[in-house]
Specification:
The chain is an all-alpha fold. Helix content is 78%, strand content 1%.
Length: 304
């Protein structure tokens, strides 16, 4: 079944890579959004889905990546790949500095601390108008063609999923799942829980910073309120929950389904689509608390 799953994934990726040959259109813009959110949700799942921790501050790294890449492009004239790498590196460094104290917290304390971090960085970036532009925002005139963003986000989503797969099948993934089941017991059995959590946290932050920087160039103009908006994190959390936290394909399924649903309902039911999306989310959480794929994975494990 795993082999068939990878074959199906490869066929889908190949089909998506060839899809632009059909010509530009609305579907390419929609799929570009889907790829962005698949990458973001999968990155969040690396740090939180495998460990069971809930991080509400992940948007911080998207914002840091956005500003680092945007400033590198506009002020220093760096090529876009180097600017995006700089954004990912700055996000990873901040995650390492933040993760050392916060990852010692557990449960609601960790969630509140990361939420406070996101709001603090948002306010600080607004006050640093000399660097970020403050309420006036930052304009990035260096950007790719629409087809360039399509392939870039497709490659980014595939790359994050591949990293998640490598982590999940290795010793780090085993340590993270042990932490999710019982962190105290994992520590007593010799797992360096802080190091494992920090490695996953920094990896996720780097991926989110990279994708956030790329999305910032696609927007061309953004303010601190745009890139440090906590709703970005909430959306990542919901997508992972819908598909199944701690699974490889859960965030992919959840992000794809939710983004397409939001796009369709937003066009058809302009005034009611948020309420409809909310009802769908509540229904899935009530009847599939482990997510769509989480329940299936648990069933397979039980039968084994």
């Amino acid at each position: 079944m795993k082999r068939m799953g990878w074959i199906l994934a490869a066929v889908c990726a190949g089909g998506l890579a060839l899809l632009p040959l059909a010509g530009p259109g609305y579907h390419l813009d929609l799929l570009t959004d889907v790829f962005f959110w698949v990458g973001m949700a999968s990155a969040w799942n690396i740090a939180c889905g495998y460990t069971g921790y809930v991080d509400f501050g992940s948007v911080t790294y998207a914002g840091i990546g956005s500003y680092a890449a945007g400033l590198a492009l506009m002020n220093f004239g760096l090529p876009m790949p180097l600017a995006l790498a700089l954004g990912a590196g700055c996000s990873a460094l901040l995650a390492a500095a933040v993760g050392m104290p916060t990852l010692r917290l557990r449960g609601a304390y960790f969630a509140i601390a990361t939420l406070a971090l996101a709001e603090a960085v948002k306010q600080l970036s607004g006050e640093m108008g000399w660097l970020t532009g403050g309420a006036m925002g930052l304009t990035v005139s260096v950007r790719l063609e629409p087809l360039g963003y399509y392939y870039s986000f497709l490659a980014g989503a595939c790359g994050v999923v591949a990293v998640a797969w490598l982590i999940g099948r290795g010793s780090l993934g085993l340590a993270l799942r042990a932490i999710r089941e019982d962190e105290r017991v994992a520590s007593r059995l010799g797992v360096n829980t802080l190091r494992a959590k920090l490695a996953a946290y920094v990896t996720a932050a780097a991926a989110i910073g990279l994708l956030g920087g790329l999305e910032a160039t696609r927007l061309s103009y953004f303010t601190p309120g745009d890139v440090f908006n906590v709703h970005i994190t909430i959306k990542m959390v919901i997508m992972s929950l819908l598909g199944g936290m701690g699974t490889l394909w859960g965030p992919v399924l959840g992000a794809s389904a939710l983004q397409i649903l939001e796009d369709y309902l937003g066009a058809e039911f302009l005034d009611l689509y948020l309420a409809i999306v909310g009802v769908v989310i509540v229904g899935v959480i009530l009847f599939l608390p482990r997510g769509v794929l989480g329940r299936r994975v648990a069933g397979w494990a039980g039968r084994r």
